[in-house]
Amino acid sequence: MRNDRALPYSYRNDPDVPAFPDDQPIIVFDGECAFCSGWVQFALRHDRRGRYRFLAAQSALGRALYVHYGLDPTDYQTNILIKDGMGLFEAEGSLQMISGLAGWFPLVNVVRILPTPILNWAYHRLASNRYRWFGRHEQCFVPTAETRARFLA
After folding, report:
1. pLDDT digits (tens, 9 = 90+) for 80-133
2. CA spacing 20 to 30 A to 76: which of 35, 69, 92, 108?
């Protein structure tokens, strides 16, 4: 990964990434993964403030963001949380996603006492087995009419 990709809003200077509204955190997820789609539905229910937007990794914008961050655009081994213009991945991205939900969910930050390599190991264990354990959809997750405005692309 090039160093400039670690800068906030670096994707705005990437000609291969279409412009998109980035004034709220965005969760880029594997739209064919049953677990990931279930996570999005969970987040929609518990994001009472409506702060998150969602984007399927299989979309043109999702693919461009995966490529921008040096990730394989055909093997979605990590969700991406774009927050304040920064791409967050693996356990860190997931913990920040969960802690941004209303209610008791910020208490998830207590697991940060564990070393990052252990958190990422657990994340990768789930990610590499998600299709086997939870299944795969033939088509990407489709939002309902009520939630459509929360999705990009």
Report:
1. 999 999 999 999 999 999 999 988 888 898 999 999 999 999 999 999 999 899
2. 108
Which residue, among 89, 54, 68, has the nearest Cα to 18 in the 3D structure? 68
Q: Alpha-carbon Rg of the chain, whole angstroms? A: 15
Q: Are the beta carbons of 17 and 68 closer than 8 angstroms? A: yes
- Give DSSP secondary structure letters for 109-147: GGGGGS-HHHHHHHHHHHHHHHHHHH-B-SS-----TTT
Token pair recorded at residue 87: 């791409």
Could you tell me how far CA 2 lies from the centroid of its own chain?
20
The pTM (predicted TM-score) of the whole model is: 0.91
Say which DSSP state 56 is in: E
C-beta of residue 102 within 8 angstroms of C-beta of residue 42: no
Rounded (10°) angle between helices 116-134 and 34-46: 110
AA letter at 106: P
Is 29 within 8 Å of 40 (Cβ atoms)? yes
Q: What is the per-residue burial (b if ≥16 Cβ within 10 Å, else e) of 110-126?
A: eeeeeeeeebbeebeee
Distance CA 81, CA 51 (A): 12
Q: Tokens 């997750």 identify what position? A: 141
